[in-house]
Structure to design on (768 residues):
């Protein structure tokens, strides 16, 4: 950390403090939380792109899987649903997995030719029919039980913080499968493939109601921090709030947000420490060697495909962790809210603006871009208000412009990305 | 056994929608494949430029409608097409001059240009939402049907019917004309030949005196035509929504890669393969089988392989299978 970087981070902190004074401490604290999560997502993307040069735009998928992991880990199990169709679903999943394994084995073991293709098709068709035959009735049974509040299998009822670990596992597992299939493709083919897989993951979350309740959302997730209502009736807390000169509502909301911020900061610190260690280790040097010249790294005996798979899985796990933290903070899983512009491409802007290949850069990018993402909207509204002030009150154009001001932030992000790519391609904090 | 009814049913629910959707995808995929062939990068802003051009068409259509102009049974949007093409040509050329040209000059890695196209995607996406908003817009007018299901049933006396919408006829006719014109242009005209030469071997093309900037400009203009047509036809057939157009990126890329990146014939074939699989896999075949199978053997379920929400999974799976089995695509595309 040289002086310049310290100054950059100090400016960022000052901006957040300014929000605290100008808007409200609670808004600033909420923003800090989102900044911390964004920084972790950016670190995940930086591991894939900065360390290894993998252009994966499937971030949204891993973030969503992290969110799903929170539900699967921390929600209490729905016993009626399990007895109605739990076994059926498990059986169907087992059949599905067996089919895929059998198909892969057939492809590997049989000699190429029409016979192999035929065998593969038979395995896939029979497997798929069996899978659907077992799954469909089980899913109907599950979704039929107490649809208004449940209609899904629920989770395991474990502590919510544990779900952050399972989120990493789930995202890593899925990333391993995806990586197995799509790594080794040309860089922009990998991008298309990962873009596709992210959409598929979101489609699963939206439609497999037995798993995630689909678009009916899961709310009331357990929280790792106290509830505001509980604090407001706690005499000790109230006396503290009084001593600080804050109202009970404001103090409790601030306290909860600060608890989250503390948790997130600890996670960020751990990830950051591990990332930096990895970057400086022989492993990190090897990854950079592969990134900068694949052919020569191969010639040195490095297993490029295996290393790519490794780093892809690691990055996905970090993104999954960030996704789990986000859902924990919100307290609900809304599969409909995952949008590629927000959860994939915005994270890429963070990494590139911050400085790809530099962990500190990614953290700064995560903070700065999230800050702008939130603040550009009111600024845009203000600017448009200024521009349209001279127009007549009932002008249709004026109303349209003011309504559309929210979309200014997409343009701003694009312009920032283009400017950084063009004039400072190494980002705010360049790779050393 | 009732083969005729089964075929009519299949045509109405699978073949006709797939052919018109495939035509729309083909126009989009042709644009992607041309950009890849000439400029050598994957154009991520394609879906959003498509939305931008279509937004131009919609605004012009509204203006024409307000002025009382109409094409009778045909949609007014056809008259408004030039406006949309101008709009998308303007944005593509502006993006090229302000963004892509720099990377061409410094011979940046393709991946850097792809990232720049992400930036352009953000800007254009924002512009579209700013101009026309994020909601559904309907701009189809004129007659809706060439003939309806009921008319078909009454005329033929079959139990099943088949309807053809005007928008579907227009889609197929326009696509046929545009694709034929494009292939004529690429194969017969001097400029088209120079584009192909540039795509095959850049250095040799430069040596033989081809002006690269001119080739690039012509490419963007052709892409503007293709992309606006694709977007307008899709919007007439279904409806216009900025986010849907962004999502079309995946099937369009899948079609281009399936056919072989950089190969125009491949893009058209790939588009129809993708469209047929998407519609076919998400269609419930129960009634179709009821007609074909003997009484009592009809299946109980819907015989729908996947719910329609998984249509993206179809293009994704096809894409991955092709990349694994035959990375150059069905027709030999460019490898680099």
């Amino acid at each position: 950390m040289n002086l310049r970087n310290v100054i950059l981070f100090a400016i960022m902190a000052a901006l957040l403090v300014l929000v605290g004074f100008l808007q409200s401490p609670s808004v600033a604290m909420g923003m800090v939380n989102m900044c911390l999560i964004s920084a972790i997502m950016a670190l995940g993307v930086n591991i894939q792109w900065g360390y290894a040069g993998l252009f994966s735009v499937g971030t949204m998928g891993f973030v969503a899987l992290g969110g799903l992991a929170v539900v699967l880990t921390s929600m209490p199990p729905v016993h009626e649903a399990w007895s109605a169709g739990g076994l059926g679903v498990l059986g169907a999943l087992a059949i599905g997995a067996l089919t895929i394994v059998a198909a892969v084995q057939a492809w590997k073991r049989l000699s190429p030719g029409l016979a192999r293709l035929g065998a593969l098709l038979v395995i896939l068709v029979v497997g798929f029919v069996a899978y659907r035959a077992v799954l469909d009735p089980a899913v109907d049974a599950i979704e039929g039980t107490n649809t208004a509040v449940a209609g899904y299998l629920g989770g395991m009822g474990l502590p919510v913080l544990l779900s952050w670990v399972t989120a990493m596992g789930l995202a890593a597992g899925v990333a391993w499968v995806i990586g197995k299939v799509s790594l080794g493709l040309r860089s922009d083919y990998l991008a298309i493939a990962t873009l596709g897989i992210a959409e598929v993951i979101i489609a699963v979350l939206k439609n497999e109601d037995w798993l995630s309740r689909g678009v009916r959302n899961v709310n009331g997730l357990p929280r790792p921090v106290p509830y505001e209502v509980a604090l407001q009736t706690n005499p000790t807390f109230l006396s503290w709030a009084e001593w600080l000169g804050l109202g009970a509502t404001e103090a409790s909301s601030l306290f909860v947000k600060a608890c989250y911020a503390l948790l997130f900061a600890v996670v960020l610190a751990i990830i950051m420490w591990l990332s930096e260690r990895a970057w400086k280790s022989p492993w990190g040097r090897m990854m950079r060697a592969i990134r900068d010249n694949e052919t020569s790294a191969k010639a040195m005996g490095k297993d490029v495909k295996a290393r790519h798979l490794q780093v892809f899985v690691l990055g996905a796990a970090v993104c999954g962790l960030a996704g789990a933290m986000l859902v924990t903070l919100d307290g609900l899983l809304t599969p409909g809210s995952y949008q590629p512009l927000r959860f994939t491409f915005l994270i890429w802007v963070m990494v590139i603006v911050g400085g790809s290949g530099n962990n500190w850069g990614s953290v700064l990018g995560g903070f700065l871009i999230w800050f702008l993402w939130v603040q550009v909207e009111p600024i845009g509204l203000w600017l448009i208000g200024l521009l349209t002030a001279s127009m007549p009150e009932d002008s249709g154009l004026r109303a349209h412009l003011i309504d559309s001001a929210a979309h200014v932030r997409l343009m701003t992000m694009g312009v920032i990305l283009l400017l950084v790519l063009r004039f400072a391609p190494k980002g705010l904090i360049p790779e050393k | 056994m009732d083969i005729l009814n089964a075929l009519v049913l299949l045509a109405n629910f699978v073949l006709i929608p797939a052919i018109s959707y495939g035509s729309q995808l083909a126009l989009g995929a042709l644009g992607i494949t041309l950009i890849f062939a000439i400029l050598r990068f994957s154009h991520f802003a394609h879906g959003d430029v498509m939305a931008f051009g279509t937004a131009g068409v919609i605004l012009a259509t509204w203006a024409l409608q307000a002025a009382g102009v109409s094409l009778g049974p045909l949609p007014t949007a056809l008259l408004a097409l030039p406006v949309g093409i101008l709009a998308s040509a303007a944005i593509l050329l502006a993006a090229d001059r302000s963004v892509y040209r720099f990377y061409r000059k410094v011979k940046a890695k393709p991946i850097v240009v792809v990232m720049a196209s992400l930036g352009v995607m953000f800007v254009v996406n924002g512009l579209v939402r700013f101009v026309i908003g994020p909601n559904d817009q309907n701009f189809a007018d004129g007659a809706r049907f060439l003939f309806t299901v009921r008319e078909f049933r009454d005329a033929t006396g079959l139990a099943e019917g088949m309807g053809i919408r005007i928008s579907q006829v227009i889609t197929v006719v326009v696509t046929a004309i545009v694709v034929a014109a494009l292939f004529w242009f690429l194969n017969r005209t001097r400029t088209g030949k120079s584009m192909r030469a540039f795509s095959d071997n850049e250095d040799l093309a430069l040596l033989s005196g081809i002006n690269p900037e001119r080739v690039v400009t012509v490419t963007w203009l052709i892409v503007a035509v293709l992309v606006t047509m694709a977007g307008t036809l899709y919007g007439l057939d279904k409806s216009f929504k900025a986010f849907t157009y962004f999502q079309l990126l995946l099937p369009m890329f899948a079609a281009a890669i399936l056919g072989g990146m950089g190969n125009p014939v491949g893009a058209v074939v790939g588009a129809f393969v993708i469209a047929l699989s998407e519609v076919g896999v998400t269609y419930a075949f129960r009634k179709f089988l009821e007609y074909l199978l003997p009484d009592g053997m009809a299946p109980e379920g819907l015989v729908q392989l996947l719910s329609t929400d998984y249509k993206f999974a179809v293009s994704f799976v096809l894409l991955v299978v092709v990349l694994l089995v035959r990375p150059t695509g069905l027709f030999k595309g460019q490898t680099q």
